[in-house]
């Protein structure tokens, strides 16, 4: 870059800045600025013969005034004129002013674009760099439209200087982020990959950043970058620090480039070529080996750079999840960091080990560090690190260490930070249920949990313990005895009173034979807590009292006196008053048989997903460490559990709270085991851990028709139960990025009998196979599925062009001597390949007018099939794949969305507008795309959701 000559010091600017700094008050500053603005305005208007130096000086003053927070409404034209100067300093100030002050709607944008084009074609590298920096800094859609073709050409041109290539790559990256639909994918895409071989490492670093973004959008176009990235990474990690002197940072060779290359490799699965894969393994082993070497410098910059490369390498090892040796080595390396003096390293080590715990290869290695993690939980001063330690204990938990981990969590809970207590409570409840071999231990654990942290025990937790006790005959007596003893404490948490009231009301008769827990003693114990409880708990206790009348006729008179008291019959709360009146009349006029029928014991609860797990997933968010861990546990263990508390009962009015998307995107998982609703409770079945409970389907028959009843449920969601009958549950979890997708299909055996010759295959009939490419990454052919176990199948999907039909999943297996055949329609729909696009109101309606031909628009007016709830409608539009654009439509009750359908051959922009009519209970849906077939298909899919 040219040096600034001494004459370019702009003394007038320096004096003005000095005057501003010397102002004693805000008023004095404004007065000085107004005086200067008047002077500049007179110079621009009066003297037409201003030289370049004067223009530059005055434009600089305007820029400084703007940065002080004052509005500037003139001087833009003078700044544009500076762009035509041949002096670097004048051109630089012109570009700086434009980058800061000129917006994309300016009338001068055409003049600016012409000046930029002149500089880009000048072949002067300094001027080209200034122009590219301006394009990137402004980054507007207009800039992208004007230079989307020029910047790639400069990037791949053979005679472009290295510094210009760097700027061009980063400029293109910026435009791709702001306006991805305007960047054409052409022949330059294959040439940009070869920049990874460039001799200038600055060019390689900039190109890698660009390729990472482009590869996430169009992976197939940049597959060749894998081999080049591995080769370049190999040269870096095997080089001595003296080989790359210009790019060695505190004895670490090119750390930023190494991190970017490792991140690029995480966009793809492990290389199929054995030579490339071997070379990559060597690179990763070398990085792990270097981490063991003594540091070459004591400065923090050296360790930061070294560890940045190491953690990115470990992330790649975890992503590939295919090299057991590397996974174990990575785990051991992270284990060393668990006791490092740097808090950040301890945090990162715990976070990475949580992910490693989900791998079947490294799970056992992670478990060896349990004592260190427990010690960190007790002694760590930073709450965020303690939270990661809790996550890791939860992730490494299995049957062998469940009791130890639950005990440690309960111990820590007494002193835990308030911000993480609720999360720990949920995790303890989940682990206690999942790994409860002896359900007496489960009951003890939950009651202990309520005692220690009752304020943080949500309704889902105590609902769940009641569900399990009611569904398991073998634990009911023990539960009644235990809660009776727990209620004898002078101070009981209200949640314990709720559990005690419910369980004693149902099963108090099981301990009534003991004189120490006679019916009257049970009643007196519960009633002693009555006056301290809230209204909902009092209502529950009144329900328990009327249950006692049925169970223990000898205490009927005592309970009737309580119900007849003024504090109940004239209670200010209408719910308590109504219950007291109705229960009293019921006990007086009903015969013994009627009373026994009305107040009979609760039946087992129906099958549903665990509401505790749902609450934890909602609290943590999808795709978190807990999700990864749950997937591993559900994949590798049979889980004990019961069913969700969903039915309003005599004891208490309990509403179910079904949750959606319980599984994090991108992490495999499977279905859990539960007690069967039809057979004995000893046999283990499968809990539905997906988002909705589904009606049970009939068993597969020999000539199985294609089942499509749940197909439409998946148009706006990716996870859930696709199919279920008395034998089999099929769960589905999907993720889609651009034109690629991956589906995890889980087959759960709900019986106690093994499935033989189990095979599952996906078929794409004509003409669908010409539009999508479907490959089995992990097959499910000729397998045996044990009772209560599950099998996973992974499918990779590529959208080649737009399509209408969907593939079919065919399942065959032998059960009890007969062959079962099931055919299910797979929810692979065109909208899954949406990329949401944010747009302003002006951009939206400008594009809307451009797509105005009859072939590009499809409109449908239809009657609402579901409740016209605004929040549900928003969720469905977002789930459909488009971005929901708020504040775009003049009518606030309308919904507007935008997105781009990605296929291998083309990208199709889509705009949608949904207009609800609440009075008529109808919708009008309008879709506009550049392809008629896409418009029609998307309209058909989306209209079915409302």
Structure description:
It is a single chain. This protein is 50% helix and 13% strand. Helix 13 (225-237) runs antiparallel to helix 14 (255-265), helix 15 packs parallel to helix 17 (324-337) and helix 20 (370-379) runs antiparallel to helix 21. The strands form four sheets. Strands 13, 14, 15, 16, 17 and 18 form a six-stranded antiparallel beta sheet that branches. It has a five-stranded mixed beta sheet with strand order 3-12-11-7-9, with no helix packed on it. Mean pLDDT is 82; it is low at 1-7 and 622-702. The protein is an alpha+beta fold and 946 residues long.
Helix % is 40-55%
Q: Assign the structural class, choosing from mainly alpha, mainly beta, alpha/beta, alpha+beta, or little secondary structure.
A: alpha+beta
- Average predicted confidence as pLDDT: 82
Report the end-to-end length measured between terminal Cα atoms: 61 Å
> Major β-sheet, in short?
6 strands, antiparallel
Cα radius of gyration in angstroms: 34 Å
Unreliable spans:
1-7, 622-702
